[in-house]
Specification:
The complex is a heterodimer of chains A (428) and B (530). Helix content of chain A is 24%, strand content 27%. By secondary structure, chain A is an alpha/beta fold. In chain A, a hairpin with a 4-residue loop joins strand 4 and strand 5. In chain A, helix 1 packs parallel to helix 7. The longest helix of chain A has 15 residues. The relative contact order of chain A is 0.12. Among the domains of chain B are: 150 residues, no CATH class; 87 residues, 2-Layer Sandwich (Alpha-Beta Plaits), CATH 3.30.70.20. Helices cover 60% and strands 3% of the residues of chain B. Chain B contains 22 helices and 4 strands. The chains are: A alpha/beta (428), B mainly alpha (530). At the A-B interface, helix 2, helix 4, helix 7, strand 21 and helix 8 of A face helix 7, helix 19, helix 21 and strand 4 of B. Bound molecules: flavin-adenine dinucleotide and iron/sulfur cluster (2 copies).
Chain lengths: 428, 530
């Protein structure tokens, strides 16, 4: 029987396994070194904040794997022998495969800062990071988080929940402004300050310094300021976790290079999820998409290919979501921080300063291109359909109430938004 | 969800510490309870009416101050920090202690009210006597243990309801729903019945809480109650007719349009207590498939039990009082049998495709009842159903379900099994409404396409132990008979994935949803499905 081996039990690897099982009775083994069972990385923060226990982050009951005849193996893959189709684990155990799926995810970025490996310095990606944060924060009253992105703000929120004062170093002019347009970004800046976080914009990390025991004592910023702290969170992005593949003959770039069928250059070896890098970016997407949804889509796609129904990775309309402290964020279609040549942006903000919506559309054809929403929930299905059908901004405006996904009784703003719309229509 | 992994947390968390204001508030609230304790110990307080007012006011004021300090100084948002760390809310020593205390309280109230000072004819002492002034004011009689219980119950819903509203002040669904349960408890369950009995002092007891319908109110159809209703003048007739209309017409219609939440989390007193006083414990419900399986058996057995009991008591009522009613005993029995046959036949015929295990189990259960009723008629001595005396049967129901389950386990075990133990495993009303919700209702929780990140906040927060994530991560809507529509799963979801909605029945259950992100040919998929 064909043996499918998957390295990595994150969302990508597990989705692939589940779909292969659905389509076939091939032998499936998932090898992973982080945790015995699949858990949701996105929920790590809630474990630290005490909203949930670690076991609650596991989407399937433990007997699920036995019931579905999926073998789980806890181990770290050290080497891939592509010609003999053998994996070597850290304990020198050998595992033979017929087909291999690499789904090893990411690692937190470290940019060679002096002191980045000190005790008290941590990223937030793996379960072990969380354990370290637990350990370090027993004696932490002040922390510095470096890197103003999605994971940085989550780490900041976590530390706040334990009454730790946080200084948040953001290299950019405004929070996450490489993705968020100015207004959205400024709304989040305000919200960060409202939570009592010491937000330092346009400030980077220069160095982390240790006390006599080798434990973090302070950071020095690129502005020369020294900030005393016992914990430093490095959350300046992630990059593919592929060191163990060096020299294996599998083509690597920043990630594992794959074609649209998610095949690597070596036959019968595939890569999916955070660690996969497309030869050519698809549409406006980046060649490496380190998001949950991509892992899920790729897992499903590769399963079909492996089970004899070759399928290209063909992602639909872009969507994403996040939560900045108390403000929820959703996006559908493409919204860039800077409008493109052909684009018109319409922005509406609620007087509370905590809700807003941005629509992007084509100046000439009025085709709807994308939306950013903060503080209001919107219906994925509605925008997905509007984008696929290439509807106009006017269609979207007219049907705005059908797009709303807020809970019942919430104050609705469609009328306000629609009224504001034409006034902003003057060409920029 | 393994049980082998222990919490990662290793330290004592400073956020578990209270501010000075919170400590003061706690002290005020506890002093209110302390006065009650003094009364319980038969300390003679000079002016009962004043001390009782002080005591209740202190409890309410303490809770309000505590809640204000806890929530109003921070931006509105989800406030669940540390619930799995704190001893009280994570089955620690405090949780167990509270559970034991509450359980004891229920045991005493149900079976040993004399320890609270209830001495029947001889006049009240202790805690019960302490409530006499309020009772006389409201209903004209001396207090009973049930009056004391009702008052404390109402105080709990009102004060902790206030706390709940502050906690979820950013979520209007939660605010409106909580105002509703607070109102129904205060007016319909507490004040109106007391005042009505003051206005009708000579009438024998019958229920005056019109929202408390059968089968939650399991004695509604018992012969003594029916007799009291019938001889209860206009008010009695009103309660009887309104009760019947609510059971057979009002409730099915409301459940069709809104799901069972219209009752379970907007009106019901048991639900009201669970949602307010029980809020801190909602995450303790068991989410395993095993618990779900147990739930289906347990709740449907209770349903069958209450059904048999009710049929048997009505049957004996009709046997004993042929003059009271327009139908005869035999007509009634054949009527019930025909009703069940039509119901099951209809369900099987029209809803077979939608039937999941829940429904099939219930159908089987009802069929058992059908046979039982037939048997009854065959063997009928006078009051026997399945050879058990109907009087005994209802006594057992009252003891096992009405008291032991709904009170002792239902509330006493809040800190151990979560706030909806009774509603989930034992409430016959929830069983009936749930069955309807699953099969004939416009209510569902819509999943927002592919936005779910499988974080598990929703499942964790579901007081009914529904593994909401299992549906959401597949893009499927949640249509579960047990869902009481509290809306907390939707509130805590950090990605805005869940929305409680009433809509067209068509497409309500969308097994194998497609919108997870891959660009698939929808038309092709739909074709393949059909
Ligand atoms: C705190 C946090 C919050 C996030 N929030 C969101 C969000 O809200 N929305 C969103 O879209 N995305 C979010 N993400 C990103 C998302 O979690 C990732 O994109 C996703 O988990 C990647 O899944 P994966 O299966 O590709 O890899 P992973 O989940 O990283 O799984 C890979 C597994 O393989 C193991 N492994 C690696 N190398 C080896 C080896 N050699 N041998 C054995 N095992 C190995 C790793 O230990 C790991 O367990 C978040 C990430 C983090 C860290
Ligand atoms: S599924 Fe959601 S709305 Fe239903 S009971 Fe559970 S938490 Fe409440
Ligand atoms: S529905 Fe929301 S809360 Fe539930 S698992 Fe998905 S993202 Fe988390």
């Amino acid at each position: 029987m064909e043996h499918i081996v998957i390295i990595g039990n994150g969302i990508s690897g597990v989705t692939a396994a589940r779909h292969i099982r659905r389509l076939s009775d091939k032998k499936i083994t998932i090898i992973s070194s982080e945790a015995d069972y699949f858990f949701s990385r996105t929920a790590l923060m809630y474990v630290y904040m005490g909203h949930m226990k670690f076991e609650h982050t596991q989407p399937y009951e433990n007997n699920f794997w036995v019931k579905n005849n999926i073998n789980l193996k806890n181990g770290f893959v050290k080497h891939v022998d592509t010609s003999r189709k053998i994996l070597r684990l850290e304990n020198d155990e050998k595992v033979h495969f017929n087909k291999l799926i690499i789904a090893t995810g990411s690692n937190s970025n470290k940019f060679g800062w002096p002191g980045q490996d000190l005790e008290g310095v941590t990223g937030l990606y793996h379960k072990q990071d969380l354990e370290n944060i637990e350990k370090y924060t027993t004696s932490t009253t002040r922390a510095v988080v470096v890197g103003g992105g999605l994971i940085g703000i989550e780490l900041t929120e976590m530390l706040l929940s334990r009454n730790i004062s946080v200084t948040f170093l953001v290299r950019e002019k405004s929070f996450w402004d490489i993705v968020l347009p100015r207004e959205e970004s400024e709304m989040i800046n305000r919200h960060i300050l409202e939570h009592g976080i010491d937000l330092k914009l346009e400030t980077g990390l220069k160095e982390i310094i240790a006390d006599e025991n080798g434990r973090t004592k302070a950071v020095i910023t690129d502005k020369g300021e020294t900030i005393a702290c016992q914990l430093v969170g490095l959350t300046a992005g992630v990059s593919p976790n592929i060191h163990f593949l060096k020299g294996s003959g599998i083509e690597l770039g920043r990630g594992v290079k794959v074609d649209r069928f998610l095949r690597t250059n070596v036959e019968d070896i595939y890569a999916i999820g955070d660690c996969a890098e497309q030869h050519q970016a698809i549409g406006n997407r980046r060649p490496i998409e380190a998001v949950w949804y991509t892992g899920r889509m790729m897992g499903e796609t590769v399963a079909k290919t492996i089970c004899g129904k070759p399928m290209q990775y063909n992602p639909g309309n872009w969507f994403n979501s996040a939560k900045f402290l108390d403000i929820e964020y959703q996006t559908y279609g493409w919204v860039f921080a800077q409008p493109k040549e052909n684009e018109e942006h319409f922005y509406w903000e609620h007087r509370s300063g905590k809700k807003c919506i941005r629509f992007v559309y084509d100046k000439n054809t009025r085709e709807f291109i994308g939306t950013n929403i903060l503080g209001i929930r919107m219906r994925h299905e509605f925008f997905d359909k509007a984008l696929t059908e290439k509807q106009s901004i006017d269609y979207v405006m007219h049907n705005l109430s059908a797009a709303n996904f807020d809970p019942e009784f919430f104050t609705r703003h469609e009328v306000e938004i629609k009224t504001a719309f034409p006034h902003q229509l003057q060409p920029a | 969800m393994s049980s082998t992994i222990t919490n990662l947390s290793v330290i004592q968390h400073s956020n578990a510490m209270q501010s000075t204001k919170q400590k003061a508030a706690l002290a005020i609230g506890l002093s209110g309870l302390f006065i009650l304790a003094l009364a319980l110990l038969n300390v003679q307080l000079p002016n009962k009416a004043i001390w009782l007012s002080i005591s209740l006011a202190a409890i309410v004021a303490g809770t309000v101050m505590y809640a204000n300090d806890l929530y109003l100084h921070h931006p509105a948002g989800i406030k669940n920090n540390g619930i799995w760390f704190k001893s009280l809310t994570s089955k620690g020593v405090l949780g167990w202690s509270l559970g034991i205390l509450l359980t004891l309280f229920y045991v005493i109230i149900y079976w040993y009210p004399q320890y609270l000072g209830f001495n029947g004819e001889k006049g009240n002492t202790g805690l019960i006597a302490f409530f006499d002034p309020l009772s006389k004011l409201l209903n004209g009689h001396a207090a009973s243990q049930w009056f004391v219980y009702g008052t404390l119950y109402t105080v709990a819903i009102l004060s902790l309801g206030y706390k709940f509203i502050l906690k979820y002040r950013h979520n209007k669904y939660q605010v409106v729903r909580t105002v509703s349960v607070m109102f129904f408890q205060l007016a319909f369950a507490f004040l109106i019945p007391e005042i009505l009995s003051k206005l009708n002092p000579d009438k024998a007891y019958f229920t005056k809480d019109i929202k408390n319908m059968w089968p939650l109110n399991y004695y509604f159809f018992e012969d003594w109650h029916l007799k009291n209703l019938i001889s209860g003048g206009n008010l009695g007739m009103f309660m009887l007719l309104f009760g019947l209309v609510l059971i057979f017409i009002g409730s099915p219609i409301l459940t069709y349009f809104f799901g069972k939440r219209w009752y379970c989390s907007w009106v019901c007193g048991c639900g009201g207590l669970a949602e307010t006083a029980g809020d801190s414990f909602r995450h303790l419900s068991n989410k395993s498939t095993k618990a779900w399986k147990f739930e289906r058996w347990s709740i449907h057995l209770v349903l069958v039990f209450v059904f048999i009991t009710t049929v048997s008591v009505i049957h004996s009522f009709l046997s004993n009082n042929p003059g009271y009613s327009i139908i005869t005993r035999n007509q009634f029995i054949y009527g019930v049998a025909a009703f069940i046959a039509v119901l099951i036949g209809g369900l099987y015929f029209f809803k077979r495709k939608n039937m999941d295990k829940d429904a099939v189990y219930t159908m089987v259960s009802l069929a058992v009842v059908l046979v039982a009723v037939m048997l009854l008629n065959q063997f009928s001595g006078k009051q026997n159903i399945l050879f058990i005396d109907s009087y005994k049967l209802r006594q057992w129901y009252g003891f096992a379900i009405g008291a032991a389950f709904s009170g002792v386990i239902g509330v006493g075990f809040y800190p151990l099994l979560g706030s909806r133990v009774w509603c989930r495993f034992g409430c016959p009303m929830a069983a009936i409404l749930g069955l309807q919700q699953r099969l004939f209702s416009r209510f569902r929780i819509t999943t927002n396409g592919g936005q779910c990140i499988s974080c598990g906040n929703c499942s964790n927060a579901c007081e009914m132990g529904i593994d909401v994530r299992a549906y959401a991560q597949k893009g499927e809507n949640i249509v579960r008979s047990s869902c009481v529509g509290c809306g907390i799963c939707s509130a805590v979801c950090p990605r805005g994935v869940l929305k409680l909605e009433n809509g067209k029945e068509e497409g309500r259950i969308n097994g194998g949803a497609v919108l997870l992100g891959n660009d698939v040919d929808l038309l092709q998929l739909l074709k393949n499905k059909n």
